[in-house]
Amino acid sequence: MEYISLDNILAILGLFIGGGGGAFFTWRWQRRRAKAEAKTAEADAAKEWQDVYQQLIEDIKTDRDEQKQYIAELKDDRQHLRRDRDDLRKRQDELEEAVRSLQRDVDRTNRLVEMMRPLLCGLAADCPSRKPVAPADLGITKPRTKAKPQSIEPIENSDL
Question: Lesser CB count within 10 Å: N end or C end of the chain?
Fold first, then answer.
């Protein structure tokens, strides 16, 4: 068996201490570097989250502005439709009034025709003795075209 000398033991101890000491300093340096990288990664992650939140806020603002614009357009459309509705109601009222006026004119004309019926004569235009005749007997079924003016004797109130 070989005897281990003191020089061999010191050489081995020197190797452990010299090589292990470097590993110890290397290990501390790696640990500090890992902590710094972790802090950098946390800062980067926080910055990314901040960017995401800023983008989200911008998107919400944009969406809200679009909704405000859309609501304003809808309000304008509603006002336009209300004006159109009011105009149509006004025109409808005017047309109804015109129809009522025309109906009054037709009724007045019918009363005048009924008042003139005793003056119709089936014999001749200048007939001194009037013979009552119905308009259907005269062949009046549709509106006549403009006829020649005929002379009509004035009526006295006592004849009515």
Answer: N
